[in-house]
Amino acid sequence: MFNFLYRDIDFAHKLNGHTLPSDDFKKHMHDFYELIFFVRGEVDYMIESKAKKLVPNDILLIPAGSLHYGVADQHHEYERYVLKFPINIIPESLAKELHEFSGFSGNYSFLDRYFKELDTIVDNYKPEHAYILLVNQLIRVLIDMQNNNQKEDEGIQHNRVVAQVINYINDNIKKNITLNDICDALHFSRAHISNEFSKVMRVTVMTYIRYKKIIAAHQKILQGNVKVNEVAYEYGFQEYSTFYRNYIKIIGKPPYDRNNSKKRYKNPIVSLN
After folding, report:
1. For residue 210, is pLDDT > 50?
2. 211-221 tens-digit pLDDT
3. Residue 260: pLDDT above 70?
């Protein structure tokens, strides 16, 4: 088991035993993509409104800004490969297709060889060379996933109310969304939406919206050539002080303007526990 971290690639072969000390089991978001290849264990995983009991050779592709967490049986070891990467290292033509096979996919046993090759790369190459090979291997994995894209696994459980709420939030992320707006659009009561959302997502609707907005704004700021106050307004914050306070709370550091600063923060893992 190992962890390779170089530049903006984080690749690990993980094995958790009875104590399970891992970010996998905290509900969280981050502003990078995460690819998980499940090897063995007894694990239930949730990505946004979808949940699934994992089986060997399952692939999880978790988009940036998606709330997710795992629940593992501590009597079984939990083994998986985890590859974290920013979207900008992927060819643009492939990046546009990522949303089509994000979430859960099963029966990808043929990808096992790719991840075993990644083990070999990390063991036998200097970091700067391993980085290039890892990126190339990642692209091969994603292309093969795209070419073998299958219908959604029957083992995936949906909560349709929560899915509709999340879709509405994603479609209107730059607006000043209220719970009443969602209720009016979806024709559900406040109590029904609040109860269903909290039960599945383990956070309130408004907390989820606030975190999604800040993560999206953080990504926009990191792209550069933007003013922080303009980004705040773009994502529905009428008062910059409100944006700043939430940004500090969620990201852990103040926002900055890349036009005036060379400082760059590492991509955060935002825990909602």
Report:
1. yes
2. 999 988 988 88
3. no
* Angle (deg, nearest 10), helices 160-171 and 190-201: 100
- Beta bridge partners, 62, equal 34
Question: Tens of pLDDT along 22-34?
Answer: 556 678 888 888 9
Task: Say what the pLDDT of residue 71 is.
Answer: 86
Asked if pLDDT for residue 121 goes beyond 70, the answer is: yes
Which domains does the chain carry?
Answer: 2-147 (2.60.120.280), 159-271 (1.10.10.60)
Buried b (16+ CB within 10 A) or exposed e, 204-213: ebeebbbbbb
**With helix as H, strand as E and coil as C, how does the chain read?**
CEEEEECCEEEEEEEECCCCCCHHHCCEEECCEEEEEEEECCEEEEECCEEEECCCCCEEEECCCCCEEEEECCCCCEEEEEEEECHHHCCHHHHCCHHHHCEEECCCHHHHHHHHHHHHHHHHCCHHHHHHHHHHHHHHHHHHHHHCCCCCCCCCEECHHHHHHHHHHHHCCCCCCCHHHHHHHHCCCHHHHHHHHHHHHCCCHHHHHHHHHHHHHHHHHHHCCCCHHHHHHHCCCCCHHHHHHHHHHHHCCCCCCCCCCCCCCCCCEEECC
- Residue 130 to residue 28: CA distance in whole angstroms: 29
